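[09:14] KT: can someone run the structure on this one? pasting the chain below
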Amino acid sequence: MPSDDEATVLSRHDDGVLLLTLNRPERGNAWNAAISRAYFGLLEDAARDPAVRAIVVTGAGKAFCTGGDGEKLAEAARSGESRLTAPLPYWTPLRIGKPIIAAVNGACFGIGMQQALCCDLRFAADDAKFATAYARRGLVAEFGMSWLLPRLVGTGHAMDLLLSARLVRAPEALAMGLVNRVVPGDALLDEAMAYARSLAAQCSPRAMQAIKRQCWQDLMSDFSASYARSEAMLAEASAQEDFREGIRSWQESRPPAFPPLAAELAFIDAP
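[09:31] RB: done, structure tokens below
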């Protein structure tokens, strides 16, 4: 029998892609301590698993994640103490040295939206909807949202979404850059999984880890430092077997056979 924690997040491994499904559909996949432990634990396991090359996360039922569990939030409001503790930091997805794609299948509010922003790409169903929620609950932008959101959509859009806490539907989310792609709901998971499989089959795990590290770290760096760092990384990459295999497979018109990500590259330093 699975533990309570395991039941809150389902996992399935297929063709180099790990699918993680938040699994409290009767509560809109509302975030609680069990989801936090299970989800972050599975991400860390995936980072270390050489068979996993890309990760997709979605929600069971009609929601991605409707935010913090209402009962826990009410308890926190009564006590005056935050109950949203976690065994690992809420920016854990940024540390994982493999691409993570959020397949947002419905409501994505509060901490659910924060977790979607911590993924590297976001695909949304055409009926998905987003809201930061905090200002309408008397709260502040939590767990790095005020750092992530302006970098993804710009300061003006970020201020709008955070100050008003208004509902944003999928077409507007696409227009402002909050999501990468909007697709019909019944095709969402297929499209996200197909994209992830293409990464797993065609792209070097070592290169994807390095690119993810570059993109997040360079957000806090000036151009000259980023440029110098990329030159050093390019010299290192050019000496790796992945580069030689990438060129050979291209010249031979065949799929590349890149090795799995080395254990020492499983995690990325904080941005």
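[09:33] KT: thanks! The chain is about 45% helix and 15% strand.
[09:34] RB: yep, looked fine to me
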